[in-house]
Input
Amino acid sequence: MSLRIRRALVVRGGWEGHIPVEATDMFIPYLKEAGFDVTVEDSLESYADTEFMAGIDLIVQCWTMGEILPDEMRGLREAVAAGTGFAGWHGGIVDSFRMATDYLQMVGGQFAAHPGDLRPHTVEVVPEKADHPIVAGVGTIPLNSEQYWMLTDANSEVLATTTIHPTDGDPWTEPIVSPAVWTRPWGQGKVFVCTPGHQLADLATPAIRTIINRGMVWAAR
Output
């Protein structure tokens, strides 16, 4: 009996500052190597196509800001709840559709700020999660990029964090530990988020690339 080939949908667009085409192009070959039949869409319209979405095993979204129509949001949420995986990085997943509270609830986090601009910082795997298949063997990751301050809830499994240290003039006085990599159940589906990824150099960092590659496959149906 032949196995069904899994299908991945890559949805990219929104604010061009996060170079959605170039960024997703870095990961499409990996998805194909992992055995996925990949469809690429440059609009959100496919989310509203119930029949099409029912056959998708993984959505990789890179869509910063913008707006999503009610039918598109409903289709996305229902697909993930029915078992379609949902994965992404940086603003393409945690700074999408700021006014869509249903989206924020599903993803489990909303970008609040990146203090300063590009700043040296590290991403640390949570020690208790070091054997999780997404971060296994990954150590401390140094980056010089945007460091995301996230608003999150307790329904996610945090695999890695980053600590935002106050500098002179900042209105907070204590270090803030913010989730950097997490997974989250949504009905029968799984959500994977990696907040680093502002620039192509971040996505090319071996540890970040490994985490995203693993996270996409982990989230898939």
In short: The mean pLDDT is 97.
